[in-house]
């Protein structure tokens, strides 16, 4: 909602275990950004926002 | 058979009093429902009954493949939460346990047309100038 550029999927990893395997998920929450970057564990909102910006090279 | 407990329904109905604008929930399942699909549908039917501001549309992932594609839905059960527009919010799988709270929070944020984020975080996110696809993998608790 904060940005029109962002789409966000919550994925139940036990129901879609092929995705947990694909993204090498060992712990949750595990956030995948644009298929190639990962954030493991819970983060503050600001840390999360900065991780997104870093992932897109800003 | 119901999914939500009566006391939880009461609690959620009370939270939903804070919804200001209409929220539409779009769910994708299929004719031969997988157990998780059936549970998700039943839960969403119960949730959407708790407020006049909520509506639920259930679609067939197979028979309505074009619509699923329009929403970018590629697996089921899928739950899409819409306000005046599509904010890109999707749940894949049954939103139970902690995820149920997240579902309710997301409905409230959309119902208020306001993400519950600080001004500082909003300023950071406003810098995003290209598509970002987040996939948050979680597990039931």
In short:
Chain A contains two helices and three strands. Chain A has 58 residues and is of the alpha+beta class.
List the topology elements.
The complex is a heterodimer of chains A (58) and B (141).
Chain A: E1 6-12, H1 17-22, E2 30-33, E3 37-40, H2 45-55
Antiparallel strand pairs in A: 2-3
Chain B: H1 6-16, E1 23-29, H2 35-48, E2 54-60, H3 65-70, E3 78-82, E4 86-92, H4 98-112, H5 119-125, E5 132-138
Parallel strand pairs in B: 1-2
Antiparallel strand pairs in B: 1-3, 3-4
Q: How would you sum up this structure, described in words?
A:
The complex is a heterodimer of chains A (58) and B (141). Chain A has a two-stranded antiparallel ribbon. In chain A, a hairpin with a 3-residue loop joins strand 2 and strand 3. In chain A, 29% of the residues lie in helices and 26% in strands. Chain A is built from two helices and three strands, in the order βαββα. Chain A has one domain (1-58): Glutaredoxin, CATH 3.40.30.10. The longest helix of chain A is centred in the C-terminal third of the chain and has 11 residues, at 45-55. Chain B has helices spanning 6-16, 35-48, 65-70, 98-112, 119-125; strands at residues 23-29, 54-60, 78-82, 86-92, 132-138. Chain B has one domain (6-125): 3-Layer(aba) Sandwich (Glutaredoxin), CATH 3.40.30. The mean pLDDT of chain B is 95. A four-stranded mixed beta sheet of chain B has the order 2-1-3-4. Chain B has five helices and five strands. Chain A binds chain B through residues 1-3, 5-16, 19-20, 23, 25, 28-35, 45-46, 49-50, 52-53, 55-56, 58, and chain B through 36, 72, 75, 87-95, 99, 102, 109-110, 113-115, 117-118, 120-122, 124-140. Strand 1 of chain A pairs parallel with strand 4 (86-92) of chain B, so a sheet runs across the interface.
């Amino acid at each position: 909602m904060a940005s029109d550029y962002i789409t966000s999927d919550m994925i139940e990893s036990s129901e879609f275990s092929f995705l947990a395997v694909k993204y090498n998920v060992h712990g949750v929450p595990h956030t995948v950004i644009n298929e190639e970057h990962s954030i493991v564990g819970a983060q503050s909102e600001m840390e999360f926002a900065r991780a997104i910006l870093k992932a897109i090279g800003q | 058979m119901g999914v939500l407990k009566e006391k939880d329904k009461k609690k959620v109905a009370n939270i939903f009093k804070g919804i200001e604008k209409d929220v539409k929930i779009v769910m994708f399942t299929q004719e031969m429902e997988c157990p998780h699909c059936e549970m998700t549908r039943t839960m969403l039917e119960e949730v959407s009954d708790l407020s006049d501001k909520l509506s639920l549309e259930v679609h067939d992932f197979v028979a309505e493949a074009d619509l699923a594609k329009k929403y970018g839905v590629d697996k089921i059960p899928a739950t899409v939460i819409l306000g005046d527009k599509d904010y890109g919010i999707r749940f894949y799988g049954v939103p139970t346990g902690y995820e149920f709270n997240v579902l309710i929070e997301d409905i409230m944020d959309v119902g208020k047309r306001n993400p519950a984020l600080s001004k500082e975080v909003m300023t950071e996110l406003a810098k995003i100038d290209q598509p970002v696809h987040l996939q948050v993998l979680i597990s039931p608790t």
